[in-house]
Design brief:
- The complex is a heterodimer of chains A (about 650) and B (about 850).
- Helices cover about 50% and strands about 10% of the residues of chain A.
- By secondary structure, chain A is an alpha+beta fold.
- The radius of gyration of chain A is 29 Å and the shape is globular.
- In chain A, a hairpin with an 8-residue loop joins strand 6 and strand 7.
- In chain A, strands 6, 7, 8, 9, 10 and 11 form a six-stranded antiparallel sheet that branches. A five-stranded antiparallel sheet of chain A has the order 1-2-3-4-5, sandwiched between helices.
- Chain A is built from 23 helices and eleven strands.
- The longest helix of chain A has about 35 residues.
- Chain B is an alpha/beta fold.
- Chain B contains 28 helices and 28 strands.
- In chain B, strands 11, 12, 13, 14, 17, 18, 19, 20, 21, 22 and 23 form an eleven-stranded mixed sheet that branches. A seven-stranded mixed sheet of chain B has the order 6-7-1-8-26-2-27, sandwiched between helices.
- In chain B, helix 1 runs parallel beside helix 19.
- The N terminus and C terminus of chain B are likely disordered.
- Classes of the chains: A alpha+beta (about 650), B alpha/beta (about 850).
- At the A-B interface, helix 7 and strand 6 of A face helix 6, helix 11, helix 14 and strand 10 of B.
């Protein structure tokens, strides 16, 4: 596996180790059962698969496995990359399922040494730490409680600004360095997880029922880069996922043609690269050796970020990786063996990520391998100097930040790749792609690996094997006899039950007490599976009906009405079983009733509102009864006439009569 | 618009003051339509205007059907093929079609045209002009340049329009101004100001500031805190604010029974399809459009005129987008700047790759001079002497304006004389060569000068006549009633018109002076030793002839003193090859063919000895693959013929020489090898050898690879019908020398990148548009009807007017040439009771309101 420590930061190196490497596959002497030489059975031709593994008490673990190219690993045919708990309460339908904790198996928890190293400013200029070899996988998030990430981030920012920054330069600098590295580390892990998920989503073998959950998980991971991303509601995840996918395709197309046109102008050769049969995500630029003597009159490298190869000593004296391509008389690349074709040597110049906004991102510069690393190191050093050592803040030093913003804007307008988050994402995706992609020519892959991180080239194979074995070890840790999963599932259910039993003020009080006693006291909640199931089903149907109502002004036109009726039947069944404690479905039912001309759907909505008999549902019924133009059938009038009844018994009777 | 008393003289300048030109439409429009006719404030009772309008627009409506309102949803760039694809997909989420509303309204309960094509060029500005007027093309590109003044007609730049509107300098988008000058009414103009509602679009009259203001406030006011947090975290999309506000206004206006015409423009699909070929991304936009159509349909259903309303979805062109191909750009700008392309300093209306320039942010830009580092003789003089103009919004085609080749030669000779290079004999030789160049052009320039003198004198007289009246209104205090009736806008329209006339007068006077200098110069002047300045700065001169373009002067020949370097642009462009073609589906030659007009008087060897054509367009793909598209009008509809030729050339005298060629594969438009060419049972060769009307060509080529290409190229390149007067002079001054068409999946966009797809060619994917109708029960619009018969843009406006029983307004371009789409017209069937009495219908069948609600300028 390729380590990305060339990227420059300790965190990046660590991520590289974990993540990339994780993605990498092992061939190494392993530990435990794997260490005994047990080879994981080879899978069929599938590139990626989703494994479902039961956990105790009605939950399951989804794990994404990625096949490993034989030339990268002769011991392992696949590698676990990502695992997620899916708590179904033992039911098979999606209404009861809840995704919870997500782990990236290719990354290990950072050791104390790593953490300390992350807090030392400028250390990355001197030293690239080894990746963590912890058998504990990194937990990326709790899908059931995404707001937690925002709370932690906000608290961290407050502590930094109010406590650490005023405490002196040393504390400020180290704490800021640590936070910066930690944030990048998390970003890179999320990016790798997203890359794996994207593959599974595209795989036709992925069960249809799982695709929606995977997309939402994908979106939630993307949102980890945003401070307030944890606050985004689940209903928005699908549209956010689709929008991100669209933006990515736009960037890819834009950069694809930009590079191709610039290559044409500069007399270079453009080669798009696709790693897993998907849209090309990367592109290479090459130069024909015989063209070096007769370059173009002007070389435009502004958007390429590479030196003019026609006037560069490194290109002229290139001794590294080359390929031999066939060309016709006009200099166009043709198939080998074509009549009249001549074979010439081509020299690789650079590899770009096409998925970066606005401009292709240079990932590998064959003429100057260290350039990307230097650029990143310089950027991070500048950040540490200004925010850490000098203590400049956007509020008190607004003029500095204003000037910096302007400069960044100007640089971006001139083609600079200035979004660090996106850069981290691109590096992580490349590492994942190189680790698991089978379609790249082996020689080229090695050349890319070599130029991504020159210092570790000699130990490349060893690192790959080691990191792959660690991924398996982490997977075993999650699923083995000492698996922490049952306890985690139980803890999450308790939390969920607490949300049902107590209002937010009470829950806040519990949390405050827990914090005040330094964790010595914790509120325990007994889990009632039936209640959980009821709440989940109600929540699922509420969200579904809400999306139905919001999607169209006439439901019967847009939706298969049987699906809507089924959901309303389920709601009616649920409200008969148990009283609604927190009524957040009445407005949804009202909206559904208003947005349809289908009497059956209207009746089901009104019946549910009658049955619930909450204050809110009565208000909703009263409001609906004023729209006699919309509800003028006898059945509707009967339902609406009972709007003032306090209990749901009569409504149930009426419903039964219907 | 100013009133009839003032407006007519202004019109006379553009429409008929110089050369006889029908003024009838001006009078009719001014009188008929209160939006355009409210001349002098408070000089006529407000109620009289709708009355007159009603009288003039009145037609007898069928007793059995009644359409009293039309709602037009204009979708840029949407082809029927995209709709068809989405309709056939089932949304796994809903269990229904991906486009359930289109399925219901137009497939199940409406009329859908499966073969509705662009007439002319598949570019937005020209194509919408056809749809919005029903008349032949007056505007031939998204941007045009005046050859004599370099004035850009930048039809797609909203920013200058909005600023000028705010400063009371203009009231209409540039395209509308051109059409107004030509006396060609918009479909919109058939409705009184009070009876219509228009969204923001290319052919827009007026600006509603309240829409912009409310779009911002409603963006936040209509959302919950949770919604705002979600948007904050996932990224605000402020661009949709205006769209949302326009939808709110449209739906609000549907509740007003006085509004008889509503149109709503969306460019979202065109935008996304340019950017990405990704079908799910395009489909997502289609689904949003479908949901929007559903909201509009429900609003219509709940409106007072629900039974008498026709909902129409129309698009201006299709999109050549494919799931497995990136559209590749070719830098035509770079070509013309290069030595191979002539080393031109090229003027464009935007910066190339403007997203990588700070200057690219400047929204008011309409002219950019792209200096060539390889200029042969004008190095460092790009600002003063640009020699090429390029339509940068080219997509699959590019319009190219080159400085007249003779001016290049004259300037090169002039430089030699000014630099005093060589001995006297050499200088005399150069001077004689220069004079020979002038003498060769003298007849043409003399004729141009005479015409220009005539036009300018008439223009000046008319400016003098209208200026006092127009300027006297500058200080008019408009009452609320005036504003409600649009009188302030009418006055402002008059100011804008006057300013345009003055600008023309100024620019063309300079052109006339330059001609005079050229015509007056003598050999003695050239050898007098004084510094010469014969070629004016920023001036393209007359159109190049085919001879000029085949022998275009690009610089002095360094090998032979006094000689000139010349290139053949047809050959040079057609032989462009690129190295980096990494997609198997694409040719390495980005140029499909080049089209330019042929002077019919030069076609001495016209075949068959038959009648001479009225016009001809030459299509060049290679020396042995060329075609002539000939057109003539005898009686009734114009006739067209495609004639394969080879090795066409023009000599210096203007005589055209060519060889007849046999039909063979590879000719421009690829007609003879096209299996989808429908000749109606007649043998292909026989059919292709004959003259056919535009409708016959349309139906024959509808499903061919190049749909409607033969008539389209004539529409784009030639004046249809021939124009007269000063307006015609200004339109001719905006003609390009030639048009370069891109091959399939190539494009010439150099402003940015359009890898998703493009349009602008005659390829069927680009030409196939969308047209669908759904009507209320009283409209008699058929249900569940798919029309396979081919129609083109000409049919849209007359069909809408026919549905509404409105006679077309008189137009300087004559009657609307397109046939009405008969299949859409009311079918006999029983009708429900009349509309609710609480919403009284207008006093006549014409959509006239006695109480206009508000002015669009709020």
């Amino acid at each position: 596996m390729i380590s990305l420590s060339a990227y420059g930061t300790p965190a990046f190196g660590r991520r590289a180790c974990h993540v990339l490497l994780g993605a990498v596959i092992l061939t190494l002497p392993l530990f435990g059962s794997l260490a005994n030489g047990e080879t994981v059975p080879a899978q069929d031709d599938t590139r990626v698969r989703l494994e479902t593994r039961p956990i105790a008490d009605g939950a399951e673990l989804w794990t994404v496995f990625v096949a490993l190219p034989p030339h990268q690993s002769h011991k392992f045919s696949e590698m676990p990359v990502l695992s997620v708990i899916r708590d179904t309460l033992g039911e098979s339908d999606p209404e009861c399922a809840r995704m919870r904790d997500v782990w990236l198996l290719t990354a290990g928890r950072a050791s104390v040494t790593h953490r300390v190293a992350s807090a030392i400013p400028f250390l990355y200029l001197l030293h690239t730490p080894r990746p963590s070899d912890s058998p504990e996988a990194v937990r990326l998030l709790d899908f059931g409680n995404p707001a937690r990430q925002t709370e932690v981030a906000l608290l961290s920012a407050v502590v930094q600004g109010e406590m650490l920054d005023p405490a002196g330069r040393a504390l400020r600098t180290t704490s800021r360095s640590y936070r910066m590295n930690d944030a990048e580390d998390r970003g890179a892990r999320a990016a790798e997880a997203v890359a794996a998920l994207a593959e599974v989503e595209d795989d036709p073998a992925t069960p249809t029922g799982a695709a929606g959950d995977l997309e939402r998980l994908h979106a939630r991971l993307l949102l980890t880069k945003s401070l307030f991303g944890g606050l985004v509601r689940d209903q928005r995840l699908a549209s956010y996922h689709d929008r991100d996918a669209t933006e990515t395709t736009i960037y890819v197309g834009h950069n694809w043609d930009l590079l191709r046109q610039v290559a044409e102008t500069d007399r270079l050769y453009f080669e798009p690269l696709s790693f897993y049969g998907r849209e090309p995500q990367y592109a290479m630029l090459w130069v024909r050796r015989q063209d070096l003597a007769t370059g173009p009159p002007r070389f435009d490298g502004r958007l390429l970020h590479i030196a003019d190869p026609f006037r560069s000593a490194s290109a002229a004296h290139w001794r590294g990786y080359t390929e031999r391509w066939s060309f016709d008389d006009a200099g166009r690349r043709v198939d080998p063996g074509q009549a009249g074709a001549t074979v010439n040597e081509v020299i690789p110049l650079a590899l770009y990520s096409l998925g970066h906004p606005h401009v292709p991102q240079l990932l590998v510069n064959f003429q100057d391998s260290g350039a990307p690393r230097r650029r990143e190191s310089a950027g991070q050093a500048a950040e540490e100097v200004t925010s850490g050592i000098l203590g400049l803040s956007p509020i008190t030093h607004w003029n500095y930040f204003l000037a910096r913003t302007v400069i960044e804007f100007v640089r971006r307008r001139h083609g600079a790749v200035s979004d660090r988050t996106e850069r981290v994402r691109a590096w992580a995706e490349l590492s994942y792609a190189l680790s698991t992609g089978a379609e790249l020519r082996p020689g080229l892959r090695d050349a890319l690996a070599r130029h991504i991180h020159v210092p570790v080239f000699d130990e490349q194979q060893e690192r790959l094997d080691r990191e792959a074995s660690l991924a398996w070890k982490r997977y075993e840790r999650l699923t083995g006899q000492e698996s922490p999963l049952p306890a985690i599932v139980q803890k999450r259910r308790e939390s969920e039950q607490r949300g049902i039993e107590h209002n937010s003020a009470t829950r806040f009080a519990f949390a405050a007490l827990h914090a005040a006693t330094l964790g010595a006291w914790s509120h325990r909640e007994s889990v009632e599976s039936a209640e959980l199931e009821w709440a989940r089903r109600m929540s699922w149907n509420r969200d579904f009906l809400d999306s139905v109502a919001r999607s169209t002004p006439a439901i019967e036109v847009t939706w298969d009405t049987n699906r809507v009726r089924d959901s309303l039947d389920e709601v009616n069944r649920l409200v008969k079983i148990a009283p609604v404690r927190r009524d957040d479905i009445s407005p949804v039912l009202a909206r559904v009733a208003m947005n349809t001309e289908d009497d059956g759907i209207r009746h089901l909505c009104l019946r549910a509102l009658n049955t619930m008999a909450t204050d809110r549902s009565r208000r909703v019924l009263a409001s609906l009864s004023e729209r006699s133009d919309r509800f003028d059938c006898p059945v509707c009038r009967q339902y609406l006439a009972r709007k003032a009844e306090p209990a749901g018994a009569a409504a149930s009777q009426l419903a039964g009569a219907q | 618009m100013i009133g009839g008393e003032l407006r007519n003289p202004v019109r006379a300048v553009m429409g008929g003051g110089v050369v006889a030109r029908p003024l009838a439409w001006n009078r009719a429009v001014v009188d008929a339509c209160p939006t355009r006719g409210a001349a002098k404030p408070n000089t006529r009772p407000p109620l009289r205007l709708p009355g007159i309008c009603g009288l003039l627009l009145l037609v007898i409506a069928p007793v059995h059907a009644e359409t009293r309102r039309v709602v037009i949803i204009k979708v840029d760039g949407l082809s029927d093929e995209r709709i068809e694809r989405a309709l056939h997909e089932t949304d796994p989420r809903t269990g229904r079609s991906r486009l359930p509303w289109i399925q219901r309204l137009f497939v199940d309960e409406g009329v859908r045209l499966r073969n509705f094509y662009v007439r002319g060029i598949s570019l937005s500005v020209p194509s919408w002009s056809l749809l919005d007027t029903g008349h032949p093309l007056q505007i031939h590109g998204n941007v045009e340049f005046d050859r004599y003044t370099l004035k850009p007609y930048d039809y797609m730049n909203f920013f200058p329009f909005y600023v000028d509107y705010a400063m009371s300098r203009r009231v209409d988008m540039p395209g509308v101004e051109v059409l107004d000058d030509g006396g060609i009414p918009l479909l919109l103009d058939h409705f009184a100001l009070a009876n219509r509602w228009q969204s923001f679009e290319l052919y827009q009259r007026g600006v509603r500031w309240t829409t912009l203001g409310r779009s911002l406030t409603n963006r936040f006011a209509t959302r919950s805190i949770r919604d705002l947090i979600d948007e904050w975290a996932t990224g605000f999309q402020m661009s949709s604010s205006v769209t949302e506000q326009l939808e709110r206004e449209l739906i609000a206006k549907l509740a007003d029974p006085h509004i008889a015409y509503l149109d709503y423009f969306t460019g979202d699909f065109d935008h996304i399809a340019h950017l990405t070929r990704d079908w799910p991304s395009q489909r997502e936009v289609l689904q949003q459009l479908d949901t929007f159509i559903g909201r509009v349909a429900v609003a219509i259903e709940r409106s007072p005129l629900r039974d008498s309303t026709v909902l129409v979805v129309v698009s201006d062109h299709g999109m050549n987008t494919s799931d497995d191909v990136f559209s590749q750009g070719y830098d035509l700008l770079g070509f013309f700047k290069s030595r191979a392309g002539g080393g031109h300093h090229v003027v464009t209306n935007r910066y190339p790759m403007d997203e990588y320039k700070i200057r690219g942010l400047y929204p008011f830009i309409s002219e950019v001079v792209n200096a060539s580092p390889d200029s042969f003789y004008l190095a460092g003089e790009s600002k003063q002497y640009p020699t090429a103009l390029l339509d940068l919004d080219g997509n699959e085609r590019a319009c190219v304006y080159l400085r007249n080749s003779a001016l290049n030669a004259i300037q090169i000779y002039e430089q030699l004389l000014n630099e005093r290079i060589g001995d006297k004999a050499a200088r005399v030789g150069v001077a004689r060569a220069l004079m020979a160049e002038i003498d060769r052009r003298r007849p043409q320039w003399t004729s141009s000068a005479a015409e220009l003198d005539f036009q300018l004198s008439a223009l000046r007289r008319n400016i003098a006549a209208i200026a006092p009246g127009v300027e006297s209104q500058k200080k008019t205090r408009w009452t609320a009633e005036d504003r409600r009736l649009g009188r302030d806008q009418e006055a402002r329209r008059g100011f804008a018109h006057l300013e345009r006339m003055r600008a023309y007068e100024h620019g063309y006077s300079a052109y006339r002076a330059a001609l005079k200098r050229l015509l007056d110069v003598t050999e003695d002047d050239l050898l007098s030793g004084k510094r010469l300045d014969l070629v004016p700065q920023r001036f393209m001169g007359d159109l190049n002839s085919i001879y000029d373009l085949q022998n275009y002067v690009i610089g002095p020949d360094p090998a032979t003193p006094g000689a000139l370097l010349r290139i053949d642009y047809f050959d040079r462009l057609a032989s462009i090859q690129v190295r980096n073609t990494v997609q198997e589906q694409l040719s390495s030659n980005p140029v499909d063919f080049i089209a330019t007009r042929v002077p019919v008087e030069g076609l001495r060897r016209y075949p068959n000895g038959g009648e001479s054509p009225d016009g001809a367009v030459w299509l060049y793909a290679a020396p042995d693959r060329q075609g002539l598209v000939l057109t003539k009008t005898t009686t009734g509809r114009p006739l067209f013929r495609y004639m394969p030729v080879a090795n066409l050339t023009e000599d210096a005298s203007g005589a055209i020489q060519f060889e007849h060629a046999a039909w063979k594969p590879g000719l421009p438009l690829h007609l003879c090898e096209d299996g989808n060419l429908d000749t109606g049972g007649v043998s292909r060769e026989e059919w292709l050898e004959g003259w056919h009307t535009d409708l016959e060509w349309l139906r024959a080529t509808a499903r061919a690879r190049y749909s409607n290409g033969v008539t389209g190229i004539v529409e784009e390149v030639l004046e249809q019908p021939p124009l007269e007067g000063f307006y015609a002079f200004t339109r001719r001054a905006a003609e390009s020398d030639f048009i370069v068409f891109a091959r399939d999946h190539w494009n010439f966009n150099v402003r940015s990148f359009n890898p998703g797809g493009n349009h602008g060619s005659f390829l069927r994917a680009s030409m196939l548009s969308t047209l669908m109708f759904n009507g209320g029960v009283r409209t008699g619009t058929p249900h569940g009807l798919e029309v396979e018969q081919a129609y083109d843009s000409f049919s849209f406006a007359p069909t809408i007017l026919k549905l509404l029983h409105i006679e077309p307004l008189p137009s300087a371009a004559g009657p609307m040439p397109g046939p009405v789409i008969e299949q859409v017209l009311p079918q006999t069937r029983s009708l429900p009771p009349d509309e609710p009495s609480s919403n009284p219908p207008p006093s006549s069948n014409a959509p006239v309101s006695p109480e206009p609600p508000s002015s669009p300028s709020e």
